[in-house]
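JOB MANIFEST
job_type = single_chain_structure
chain_count = 1
residues = 71
[input]
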Amino acid sequence: MKLVANTWVGETTGPRSIRHVEISNPKTGKILVKAKTTWCMVDSQSMRPKRIDESILNILKAHLKVKLSLS
């Protein structure tokens, strides 16, 4: 059975970014799984939360929606 996973970046504020994922059956169009995770940027030296800077925000915005085929 082939599945399709769609993922996109949601709200991004301060050090946090929301990531959405939906996995569906392309034959029926039925969504099988919905997930939402919260990611937090961490400073590599202090290991403390760090505000997401403009360069990272631009990367997130460029990849707002990604579609994957899973076998």
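[summary]
The CA atoms of residues 42 and 48 lie 5 Å apart.
The beta strands are 3-13, 16-24, 31-40, 65-70.
exit_status = 0
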